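Sample entry (292 residues):
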Amino acid sequence: MKKLLVFILIGFTAQLIDGSLGMAYGVTSTTLLLTFGIAPAVASASVHLAEVVTTAASGASHIKFGNVDQGMVKRLVLPGAAGAFIGACFLSNLPGQLIKPYVSLFLLALGLYIMYRFLFPQHFHRQTASKALPNKQLIPLGLIAGFFDATGGGGWGPIATPVLLARKQLEARKVIGTVDTAEFAVASAATLGFLISLGWEQVNWYWVLTLMLGGLAAAPIAAWLVRIIPAHLLGVLVGGLIILTNIRTLLQAWSFPKDWHTPAYISLFVLWALALLLTVRRQRAASLSERL
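Predicted structure, serialized as tokens:
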């Protein structure tokens, strides 16, 4: 029963973050599943199978709240799905224990990127172009984001969302809703690739169903919260969580001396706390300036 609640909470938290930020469901869920000793391909397959349902619920919720650009969704779906299918087949044919540290390294890089993205948001608003991305740029974006989403267990949102935000074509809530809605096709294609390569017998339906339950509960809440919640605070929170968890995996996988573990955790936790404090202070200052 305790394990059931933990996995439901993982699904709920991951979808709450993803639906509010347009990223991090796969990264958060896969990171936490890897800590349970689950092979990377099986973890990613389980997450994507759960995402088929949670992204459908999330997309429907974002459409209901008017957070979606339908034209952009249609242009992202095909390249994203193709990249995800190729990435799933690629990951499934690699030895689990060999690839696990490198998946964690990729997730760590995404965690650092998410942290930087929300800790220093001003660096992502310098572009003045307002034209829509042409297909010659959008197709490679979808292919790359879809491929890394399947191979790393996350990457669609962290790659696609910042690129679309930087264009200033859509308001932030519509970028998040659009990316989340298009992710249904990405998750479906990745799941198909994993099932073809791994087979149904490799899927642990216990993990999948619990992640689904948590995600379904969180989807409508996240679609509503994206309109009111400070995204920078959530971004720094999830970025720090991903960094801490994957550092643990890498320290163990690469046999670093145990004497290094505690100082590394303490140092990272202190830096994370400082980042959160800085984010809260900036948020308060921004709120005060708006009132004045």
